[in-house]
Amino acid sequence: MPAGETFDFIIVGAGSAGSVLANRLSACGRYRVLLLEAGPADRNPWIYIPVGYGRLFNDTRYNWRFKTVPQPGCHGREMIQPRGKVLGGSSSINGLIYIRGQAQDFDHWRQLGNVGWSFEDVLPYFQKAEDNERGADDLHGAGGPLAVSDTRDRHPLALAYIEAAHQCGFPRNDDFNGATQEGVGLYQTTMRDGLRWSAAKGYLKPARMRRNLKIVSDALTSRIIFDGRRARGIEYRTKGETHIASAGREVILSAGAFGSPQLLQISGVGPASLLQSLGIPVVADMPAVGDNLNDHYSARIALRCRVPTLNDTARSWHGKAAAGMRYALTRRGPLTTSAITAGLFMRAHPLSATPDAQCSLALFSTDSIGEELHAFSGVTGVCTLLRPESRGHVRIASADPAQAPAIHPNYLAAERDRDTLLSGVRTLRRIFGAPAMAPYIEAEIAPGPDCDSDDELIDFIRRRGGTTFHPSCTCRMGQDPQAVTDERLRVRGLAGLRVIDASIMPIVVSGNTNAATIMIGEKGADMVLEDAAQ
Ligand SMILES: Cc1cc2nc3c(=O)[nH]c(=O)nc-3n(C[C@H](O)[C@H](O)[C@H](O)COP(=O)(O)OP(=O)(O)OC[C@H]3O[C@@H](n4cnc5c(N)ncnc54)[C@H](O)[C@@H]3O)c2cc1C
Asked: Measured in whole angstroms, how far is the alpha carbon of residue 122 from the centre of its chain?
């Protein structure tokens, strides 16, 4: 039995979901809550300056910088998988886009048997979280912890992109989280007054001083401690020492789509053969832990522009100084640019009833994601596959919690995924070739006009595409015996243990995943408190 300090709830991971939980579970003052985060406190100013996602993308102080195993569908490449490792988790390093997904996504979750997860059920939690500067209405919330704002500086290229997509026959859409997602428009972002609004900023900051909430950063949770099939506590390492802490009520894993299944497996909950091969005593043989990995794959085309873009700002001292000065004085300008600015949600595959591709404009360009910006003015057209059929897995490669797990997203295994991306890339090309873009776009440089047959384009997509940073579904919620969690997010067959983060999604939402994960945190917190009150 664990000794050490005793809490009611222990939350592992202070990311999007963990930050929500720490706030909500400690709010009434009745429960003692421990929040453990492997990364440091979120003091680096680049976390708050929106364009800091570029700075933190390769910074191992705040980013796990995982890699996939060689991907057969992508010419055997080992591909980047950034994940936040800091208070706020991935919401502290992400691209700031606020998209919930489609109502049909959640209705589908419900159809799969997950009572309480239809769109009607989850909408109040999106609204509870939200502080939309446009105010509250039937679909939106105001006054919640998560600031959501319109783009303050409307770059002419973004406006031209919207006009060009319209010229290609797509409807305008002023609110992708409104009545319908379909159409083209500007994104709303998790920013306020020119500052990033991470989950830590929205939920942890106001709760940090509560006496019943203990937050320990730089603390890697190394295993869950079980008494039979009940979770009793955890073991964690900080400053070179190992500690244990007991949970009187529950241990809650919010370590993300890689971290949560890794911790379960390391603690003896996972495929028995894998665990035994690594010498880990089996607590529960659950082959599905770490399976069903969904991720959004993106194809990215690069274009040379006739007008300055972020490339110019970032690559000259003059550009940097001017942008820095403007930001310091007004909290506006290039430093507040989100990772993508304008976007089109469209049906790319003929069989899709709702948008299955998100075609976005990024105001910068690189040879490959995460690499140096081009030395010329450039933009990127990003086509993201919203409902991938390909499924992968994450499995520990070692019993050592400090070792990265083996991540296999199995990108582009399904023919429909390839066809959808091909159609989406062709749409991007139509948009960039439309009259409204003519004053701005000089030429497509990757893959370039010579790459045009279906086979050539699919080869380009395999060679140069990559993650959109939305891994999820590895502790899938469901009613079937293969599911890892039930509809109340309890780990099936075990007591005192839940998973509450992006890994419980049964199927990834058709959009960026931060808003939905925060919703999962809000709903999960309510369920934990309801059960504790019984
Ligand atoms: C580069 C990037 C760009 C993105 N852009 C967007 C975007 O624009 N819009 C959007 O909606 N979504 C975006 N996302 C995705 C979104 O941010 C994530 O889906 C969401 O934050 C996931 O939340 P989570 O709570 O599941 O996990 P996370 O937020 O990743 O939190 C997990 C936390 O657990 C910690 N942890 C893991 N293992 C342990 C352990 N053993 N012990 C202690 N702590 C541990 C981690 O350090 C981390 O802080 C992006 C993500 C990335 C990485």
From this structure: 18
Question: Average model confidence (pLDDT) for the chain?
Answer: 97
Residue 528, token pair as written in the block: 């934990």
Most informative mutation of 92, 266, 514 for ligand 1 (most atoms within 8 A of CB): 514
188 lines ligand 1 (CB under 6 A): no
Confidence at 369, pLDDT banded by 50, 70, 90: confident
Assess whether the C-beta atom of 83 lies below 6 angstroms from ligand 1: yes
Q: Would you say the CB of residue 270 lies under 6 angstroms from ligand 1? A: no
- Average of pLDDT values for 263-278? 98
Detail the DSSP E strand segments found in 413-509.
441-446, 466-467, 497-499
Query: Does any ligand 1 atom lie closer than 6 A to the CB of residue 373?
Result: no
Angle, helix 514-533 to helix 119-129, in steps of 10 degrees: 100
For residue 503, the SS3 value is: helix
- The CA 484 to ligand 1 mean position distance, Å, reads 20
pTM beyond 0.90: the answer is yes
Pocket flag, ligand 1, residue 63 (CB < 6 Å): no
Q: Which residues are known to be catalytic? A: 470
| pLDDT of the residue at 4 | 85
> Is the pLDDT score of 210 beyond 60?
yes
512 lines ligand 1 (CB under 6 A): yes
CB 384 within 8 A of CB 297: yes
Instruction: Extract the runs of DSSP E, i.e. beta strands, from 137-291.
Output: 146-150, 183-186, 188-189, 191-192, 195-196, 213-216, 219-227, 230-238, 241-253, 269-270, 284-285
* pLDDT at residue number 152: 86
Ligand 1 pocket, mutate which of 189, 336, 513, 520 (most atoms under 8 A from CB):
513
- The pLDDT assigned to 2 comes to 59
Which residues are CB-neighbours of 376 under 8 A, at least 6 positions away? 304, 311
Burial 286-320 (b: 16+ CB within 10 A, else e): bebbbbbbbbbbbbbbbbbbeeebbbbbbbeeebe
Whole-number Å distance, alpha carbon 391 to ligand 1 midpoint, is: 20
Atom of ligand 1 nearest to the CA of 260: 38
With H, G, I as helix, E, B as strand and everything else as coil, classify residue 261: helix
Q: What angle do CA 210, 211, 212 make, to 5 degrees?
A: 95
Q: pLDDT per residue over 501-517, tens digit each? A: 999 999 999 999 999 99
Query: Is pLDDT of 3 > 90?
Result: no
274-291 pLDDT, tens digit each: 999 999 999 999 999 999
